[in-house]
Backbone:
């Protein structure tokens, strides 16, 4: 265990060191020096991955809050907190990513005073800002419980219905609006990915990804923290994921059918390869896997299906943001290593923060073996008491 | 009342006086090296392209309904009533959505700068307000680039097409493309040959309408969806309350009976 931890810590420090170098390049030599973005490709890997994928991967928060608090599905209670934590961290890191991508990040606050309500980007910006605030309050009870501050917890409990409704409303709006961003370029984005239904696809896939991500993160953190997995919860989520994948797949099929593209998508072409990579991973493989009862009931099977579908939806977002423009532009865009290194740094910091939060805050119920590292901590005795209040 | 530019490629002699005037007006470097650059960039807002002995000019089209202005989250780009689509650098946050959205690929970026600006032809708004023609139109020795009222320029273009039909392809590029632009082009070769987007592909619908259809629903969507979500919340929790209350009653009754 000790060796493994040092290894991962080593990896972490290498990634962060490279990322810090890239950060230096970004802010002292400019966007041209750090990225392969050009006038022809003004949106690169950061928009494709950090923004489109980042927000999508943080969708577990609103999905689980919706399931547990809105629809009152009690049995999923144990995954709400990790899902909210992931979402909160995800949005914070998305904003950090934005500070790299924006040409003039020091003016990001202009969003609040120079508003253009016709702009989809304005809507996304406002929603993300408000939703991150909502997530902060949804996350706050963890911290309050940790320090046994009963007063504020009661206040948050009182306003929780508002937070729940507001959070889901804002998520519906901006998850779909990320797709609407591309509606204005019908002549640029390849027809495989440009569709008037883009906002629906983006929202639909966010729900599927929210479920898959919750399975992924619960499995992953249970491994890391050495706690028992609740199989029934995972199985429920897996069932919901299967339904969500079917709905998404049918929507996509309908869209290609109505726009008369069915023949074109099976004709080999550069775009078709990427499309099929996406469709295989997002739909065909995970749906096939989850259709077997045995796989759907096994934690490993659920984990595998979720990870594959996550990769599929990530491919989808990257196709929309990058691959779909290559034919129009006439050349390929390959991100510079410094672009990857910034993203990698952001992701690693995310994982690290998740680990820290999971260790010191009552994120997971009944974590008796929470502390795996030989670090001396005094928090341990306090945890069980706090856990009793967990999940409000 | 809106002003426009009419560029007649058949009258252009490729002298690049417009390029030079534009550079001077916008305080951009101009030299033989820059003149030789055949593409637009952050330091070259307009370019005269040559193919055999024919020329074609490119510059911001100043759309009647500009995509760039509609997508800008902070409204740093906007269409003035005089016609130019202008840029307010102070507002800009550098998201580059305008560049992605522009049908004509006009906004360029200062990628090497640490405080980068979006650069494009802004149609000399100060000169227009002062009653002057744009710098390029004033510098043009042959009148290939002509400044004037959009309506009048359209009339004139039609007149030229009518009197000299053999000299032109029978169309005014920019008349209806993406809902019309403030730059109108007459030429003997289709502008598409020089890299202009194809009229058939970009269509006559103003680009902002594609997102407008979705965005105009948002104000209605917010209250309706909030009510639906609130309703679901209320129902799903009401059930619990009721069953809790019933259980309580049951207990009470049982307690009373005993």
Residues:
């Amino acid at each position: 265990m000790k060796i493994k931890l040092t290894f991962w810590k080593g990896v972490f420090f290498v990634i962060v060191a490279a990322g810090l170098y890239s950060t230096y390049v970004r802010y002292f030599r400019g966007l041209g020096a750090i990225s392969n973005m050009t006038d022809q490709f003004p949106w690169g890997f950061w928009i494709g991955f950090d923004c489109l994928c980042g927000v999508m991967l943080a969708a577990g928060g609103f999905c689980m809050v919706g399931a547990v608090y809105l629809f009152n599905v009690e049995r999923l209670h144990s995954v709400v907190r990790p899902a909210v934590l992931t979402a909160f961290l995800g949005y914070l890191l998305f904003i950090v990513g934005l500070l790299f991508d924006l040409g003039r990040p020091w003016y990001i606050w202009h969003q609040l005073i120079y508003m253009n309500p016709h702009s989809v980007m304005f809507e996304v910006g406002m929603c993300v800002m408000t939703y991150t605030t909502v997530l902060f309050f949804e996350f706050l009870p963890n911290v309050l419980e940790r320090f046994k501050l009963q007063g504020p917890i009661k206040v948050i409990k009182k306003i929780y219905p508002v937070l729940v409704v507001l959070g889901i409303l804002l998520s519906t709006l901006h998850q779909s609006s990320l797709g609407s961003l591309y509606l204005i370029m019908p002549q640029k984005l390849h027809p495989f990915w440009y569709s008037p239904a883009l906002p629906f696809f983006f929202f639909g896939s966010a729900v599927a990804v929210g479920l898959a991500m919750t399975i992924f993160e619960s499995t992953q953190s249970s491994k890391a923290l050495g706690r028992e997995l609740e199989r029934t919860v995972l199985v429920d989520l897996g069932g919901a994921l299967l339904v969500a994948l079917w709905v998404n797949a049918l929507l996509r099929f309908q869209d290609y059918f109505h726009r008369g593209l069915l023949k074109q998508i099976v004709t080999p072409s550069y775009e078709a390869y990427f499309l099929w990579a996406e469709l295989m991973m997002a739909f065909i493989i995970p749906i096939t896997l989850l259709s077997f009862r045995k796989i759907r009931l096994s934690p490993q099977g659920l984990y595998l299906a979720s990870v594959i579908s996550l990769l599929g939806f990530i491919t989808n977002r990257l196709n929309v943001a990058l691959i779909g423009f290559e034919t129009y532009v006439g050349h390929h865009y390959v991100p510079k290593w410094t672009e990857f290194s910034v993203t990698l740094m952001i992701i690693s910091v995310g994982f690290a923060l998740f680990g820290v939060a999971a260790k010191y805050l009552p994120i997971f119920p009944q974590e008796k073996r929470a502390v795996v590292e030989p670090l001396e901590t005094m928090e341990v005795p306090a945890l069980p008491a706090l856990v009793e209040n967990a999940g409000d | 009342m809106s002003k426009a530019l009419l560029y007649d490629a058949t009258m252009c002699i490729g002298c690049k006086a417009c390029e030079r005037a534009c550079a001077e007006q916008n305080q951009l470097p101009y030299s033989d090296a820059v003149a030789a650059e055949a593409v637009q960039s952050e330091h070259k807002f307009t370019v005269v392209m040559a193919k055999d002995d024919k020329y074609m000019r490119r510059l911001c089209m100043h759309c009647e309904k500009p995509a760039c202005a509609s997508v800008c989250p902070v409204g740093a780009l906007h269409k003035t009533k005089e016609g130019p689509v202008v840029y307010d650098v102070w507002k800009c946050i550098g998201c580059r959505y305008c560049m992605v959205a522009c049908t004509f690929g006009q906004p360029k970026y200062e990628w090497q700068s640490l405080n980068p600006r979006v650069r494009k032809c802004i149609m000399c708004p100060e000169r227009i307000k002062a009653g002057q023609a744009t710098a390029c139109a004033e510098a043009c020795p042959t009148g290939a680039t002509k400044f004037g009222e959009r309506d009048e320029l359209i009339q004139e273009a039609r007149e030229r097409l009518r009197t000299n039909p053999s000299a032109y392809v029978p169309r005014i590029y920019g008349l209806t493309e993406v809902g019309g632009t403030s730059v109108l082009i007459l030429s003997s070769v289709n502008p598409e040959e020089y890299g202009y987007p194809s009229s058939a592909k970009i269509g006559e619908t103003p680009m902002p309408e594609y997102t407008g259809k979705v965005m105009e629903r948002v104000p209605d969507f917010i209250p309706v969806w909030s009510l639906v979500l609130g309703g679901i919340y209320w129902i799903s929790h009401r059930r619990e309350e009721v069953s809790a209350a019933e259980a309580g009653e049951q207990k009470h009754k049982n307690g009373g009976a005993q």
